[in-house]
Amino acid sequence: MLPKSGRKEEDVLSDLKSFCKDDPDYKEGKLFSLVYYLGEEHSSATQKAYNLYSSLNGLNPSAFKSLKKCETDVINITASLHNGDKNISGVITSGGTESCLLAVKTYRDFARAKKGIRKPEMIIAESAHVAWDKGAEYFGVKIKRAKLDKNYAIDLDHVKKLISRRTIMLLASAPGYPHGVIDPVNKLGKIAEAKNIPLHVDACVGGFLLPFIEKNGADIEPWDWRVSGVTSISADIHKYGYAAKGASTITYRSLDLLKYQMFVKQDWPGGVFASPALLGTRPGGAYSSAWAALQLMGEEGYLKQTQLAMDAANIMKEGIESIDGIEIIGKPKATILAYKSITKKINIFVVGDLLEKKGWHVDRLQHPEALHLMLTSSHKKIANKFINDLRDAVKEAKENPSLAKSGSAATYGMIANLPLQGVVKKQVLKLFSQMYGPDAKMIDMSDDHTP
Ligand SMILES: *Cc1c(COP(=O)(O)O)cnc(C)c1O
Question: What spacing in Å lies between the alpha carbon of 95 and ligand 1's midpoint?
Answer without folding.
Answer: 7
